[in-house]
Every structure is written in structure tokens, then in C-alpha cells.
């Protein structure tokens, strides 16, 4: 019998999940999807999600002080917004509007293209493109 995408995942994770519309978050164990060639996986130490980084990179608030380094390498601290994947080849992605990508995958509560579910950032482990 074939394993489900969740059963095939190599990395177990823990998070605080909304399991209904009550607004209450409770403990939740899950598995993150496997990393692909263009993916990164990292341990989450703190969670606070913002759109600010994208606005700052594009100087959309006219107060960016260049240079600054929004990218990262192994060992750097990183941040994740409300999306974990975009196609990278469509028109919207090519003009840095990945949030309008028709193939964009949100950080939580959707199915990823490999069939796994994205569970969100209030967890200890995240995989993204
Ligand atoms: Zn795209």
C-alpha cells in the first residue's frame, strides 16, 4: 500500500494549531514536506510574520537604508511570510509580485503541489522554496 505524502515526509515537527474557529491554539504534531532542490528547511525559534521585508526591499515606504541583506545562508536567521512557494517563472513572479502568482502556496491551511498540507509558522520546523 502506497504511503500518503505525510507518511513519506522525513522531518517531524511540532506546533500550535488552530483546530477550529474558536481562536484557541493547541499542541499539534505533524511532518514537514521533504526539501527539494530549491528548498530550504530550518528550525523555527520565534514566530512573527510580516510583509514588511518585501516592502523594505522594494523601498515602497521610501525609507530603506541600503545596503541590507534580506537573503540568507546556512546559519543565518531567516523569516517566512504568508507564502512558502511560488512558480518563479510566471509574469507576476518575474516582476517580483510573487504574491499574485497563480501557483503561490500559502504558509498554512492549503495543499502543496506534492500533496502535503502546509501547517504554518507556529511550529518548530518549516520547509519553503
Ligand atoms: Zn509565479
From TrEMBL:
Highest taxon of the lineage: Eukaryota
Keywords: Metal-binding, Oxidoreductase, Zinc
An MF annotation (GO) of this entry: metal ion binding
Family: Belongs to the zinc-containing alcohol dehydrogenase family.
Name of this chain's protein: Mannitol dehydrogenase
Amino acid at each position: 500500500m502506497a504511503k500518503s505524502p505525510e507518511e513519506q515526509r522525513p522531518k517531524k515537527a511540532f506546533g500550535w494549531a488552530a483546530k477550529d474557529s474558536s481562536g484557541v491554539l493547541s499542541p499539534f504534531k505533524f511532518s514537514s514536506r521533504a526539501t527539494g532542490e530549491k528548498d530550504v528547511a530550518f528550525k523555527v525559534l520565534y514566530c512573527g510574520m510580516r510583509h514588511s521585508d518585501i516592502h523594505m526591499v522594494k523601498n515602497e515606504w521610501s525609507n530603506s537604508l541600503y545596503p541590507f541583506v534580506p537573503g540568507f545562508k546556512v546559519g543565518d536567521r531567516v523569516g517566512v511570510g504568508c507564502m512558502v512557494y511560488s512558480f518563479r517563472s510566471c509574469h507576476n513572479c518575474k516582476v517580483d509580485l510573487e504574491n499574485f502568482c497563480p501557483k503561490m502556496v500559502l504558509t498554512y491551511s492549503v495543499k502543496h503541489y506534492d500533496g502535503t498540507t502546509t501547517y504554518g509558522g507556529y511550529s518548530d520546523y518549516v520547509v519553503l522554496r
